[in-house]
What we know:
Blueprint: H1 3-10, H2 20-55, H3 59-87, H4 89-107, H5 113-141, H6 147-155, H7 157-184, H8 189-196, H9 203-214, H10 225-229, H11 235-266, H12 271-299, H13 301-321, H14 325-341, H15 345-353, H16 359-374, H17 377-388, H18 390-395, H19 397-409, H20 420-433
Amino acid sequence: MTPTTESAASKTTAEYGSDKKKQWLSLGGAMAGWMLDAMDWMMLALALPLIKTTFNCTLPQLGLLATVTLAGAFFGGVMSGILADYFGRVKLLMVTMIWYAMFTGACGLAQSYEQLMILRFLTGIGLGGEWGVGAALVSEYWPDKHRAKATCLVHSGWPLGFGLAAVAFMTITPKYGWRGLFFVGVIPAFIAILIRLAVPEPEVWREARKLRSEGKPGEAAAKFPLATLFSKEYRRLTLLAILLAAGALMAYQGAATWLPTFLAKTKGLNVARTGGFLIILNLGAFLGYQFFGWLADLKGRRVAFTTGMVGAIIATLIYVSIDNLQALLWFGPVFGFVTYGFFGIFGAFISELFPTEARATATSVIFNCGRAPAMLAPYIIGVVAQTKGLGAGLATTVIYDMLALVGLFFLPETVKAGIRLHAEAKAKAKAAHD
């Protein structure tokens, strides 16, 4: 038995990920990356009314900017997940962050609507790769009983990124316009890259890579990761998880893209007040992530998902029907709490459904296959808003949450089965020795 195999074989499930420093470094790096990912998305959403004026765009054309970003995210997410299963989670995370930082800044240089569309597609390639790889990294470092709380903490970076984008919007755009907003988006990405340099590859992934390189007969690790997802054993889980992600992301991307314009154009808020409303809304989202992570580890992933999506349906219908600005302001945190909070569970849930050798591929492919139909949601809402108003357009997100609930209904609970996430490395190491 080699030292590496002996080390892996001697660990219990509870002991995997017991290095607290590495756990928190992985979480901090993934959270920072997700925060900057959110900052980019929100800067686009906030800039849409200003871009409309600059390039004289229609509402459907503005929605199309988000759509092409999601198209790039789908392509980048699928490729990054597969590459991360082969070459490592940390390496691919750094590549994706450098990529989207570079093209976020380039968006500020666009001289036409068509140029901006191309640059948003290229930005999306980096954005799409970041989440799935980060979810696999954190899931492999954190033990079963805290995994959902950890992945929800990562997602807490999303409302923080929204908050940073809102602050930048209020301070940068009055003087430098929407172009200055995208230039600012370049700077913080490199801070997260420095954090990632301190995070080593997870031991459970290193063991899977060792088995893959040996190409042992009968070992799943020798298979192409994407083939594992659509093998007889995992095909049903893959398709149902895609349906869950598609419905939830269509609701989320549609609402997140149009909320700033809804507040500015429908409710008549100026730049400062729009940013203030969104900051308060995202404080609720931050608390929602913590609550749903706790609920998922305590009562199970399915219970937490169901609570969140049913709550999102109810909260959305209330939010778009509120006319009083003061009531809209204070209901915002409730809307953010239920509408965004349950998304943090995705990282733990998908990771627990699939084996190590295909985990980054699974999280990336499933989440970004969900983004594929979600890329239509901003455009659909723009079309509805053109005739029915933005309130009616945002209300269509309720339908997408209902589709997500259908996928969830047929998926298994993993809060108990999730123990295999780290135990499988021990089992494979023991089999290799025997």
